[in-house]
Write a structure and sequence with these properties.
Rossmann fold, two-stranded parallel ribbon, 8 helices, about 60% helix
């Protein structure tokens, strides 16, 4: 939810000469709809079904690839079979600061349905935090850091696993 998963994945892919895919991009291509439209027209449960289908496809068809996901993707069944799981950590306030500093801040906020209600976003973050930590192999704090710095640390930590 706005911590720089996609940008970090691309930076890591550049360093490791691997491909990168984004599950939200795969889902948008699969159903020919933007994520916010899927949420608005079909609801979150349908979107979570699409995430599971995407995870199943990745598990069967993709290897040696860096995959960035949406914030709720950790809920898919058998996520650990996809590979090493990295949790990029930031507070809700840190996420908002990073988004608001972006030249296209308004567009970035609009594209994140779960950030439309900040109280709800904070509650969701509090609920998900222990779950993120439970499924992740690596946790990295991204608050106040550059993508390059985060990708460097991630590359070093992955080598140790």
């Amino acid at each position: 939810m706005g911590v720089g998963k996609g940008r970090t994945a691309r930076a890591l892919a550049d360093r490791t000469r691997r491909y990168t895919v984004d599950t939200d991009d795969l889902i948008e291509t699969m159903v020919k709809m933007k994520i916010r439209t899927i949420f608005a027209e079909h609801g979150e449960p349908y979107f979570r079904e699409l995430e599971q289908r995407t995870a199943d496809w990745l598990r069967k068809n993709v290897s040696n690839t860096i995959v960035s996901t949406g914030g709720g993707f950790f809920q898919v069944n058998n996520i650990s079979k996809l590979g090493k799981i990295v949790y990029l950590h930031s507070s809700v306030e840190g996420i908002l600061e990073a988004i608001m500093a972006h030249p296209k801040a308004e567009k970035k906020i609009k594209k994140r349905p779960l950030l439309q209600d900040l109280d709800q976003a904070r509650a969701l973050f509090k609920q998900r935090l222990p779950l993120y930590r439970k499924v992740s192999d690596i946790e990295i704090s991204v608050e106040g850091r550059t993508i390059e710095d985060v990708a460097d640390e991630l590359q070093k930590r992955i080598k140790k696993l």
